[in-house]
Amino acid sequence: MINIENLSYNYHKGYKALDNINTQLDSGVHLLLGENGAGKTTLLHVIAGLLFAKEGSCEIDGNDISKRCPSDMSKVFFMPEDITFPAKNINDFAKIHSPFYPTFSAELFCQNLEIFHLTGDEPFNALSLGNRKKANLAYVMALGTDVLLLDEPTNGLDINAKKDLLKIMVGSLKEHQTVIVSTHTVWDLKNLFESVMMLRRGNLLLSMSTEEIGRKLSFMASTSPNPNALYMEQDMNGFRSIEKNIDGNETEINFALIYSALMSDAAQNVLDALK
Predict the structure, then answer these.
(1) CA torsion angle 234 238 242 245 (round to 10)
(2) Where would a tag sit more exposed on the chain, N or C end, judged by fewer CB atoms within 10 A?
């Protein structure tokens, strides 16, 4: 479990990247949304113990991660969008790195590599960006850490590789794990997300389960404007809108649409409907 209380982070010259963040995340896969510069990567760094909050706290299973105790750090792994492992290939890196993570599964690692059609012996410097990303993900998904933080994990992957990643995540993740996925390509892993967090200019606008969002909001598609819309946009296929869910039956969430809504002038209308 991740518990964040009154967390703020300032960079040099007073720029506040995070402003009084409060949320609690249980096990499951959580989507982190926000515009460029909203503070998403900063938040992931704080949760990973790589940056230290100026105010407030971040606890993992009741322990302050900023203390960086080895027993706590072995439960957390952060994979940034672009990562270079200091080894010849991913198999060599796993031999060096995995002893620090007691939950690592060599068997699962091999299975993940096979799904990605890799052996693990391919030299990093001979791999394309996509294949290097696949090798890294095969290893990271086998670590089994209580907390796994993924920043744009599908960037650089082709269509089939994204499907393979979804298969790997379904097969690799355990019930006790808390996974945060920060991404702009929300459709790649949309069926995995159990909650949504939305950052805007360092403020946490939303942190709510997908079930609750689906019961409070309805996501509509129509050929004409929706007079009941809290937010609406038009594309070549017609109109897509969000309205208040009257009957309480859970609807499928359009993650891209709720992102656009919370970035628009209609954000407060949508947030009020979620209360």
Answers:
(1) 170
(2) C
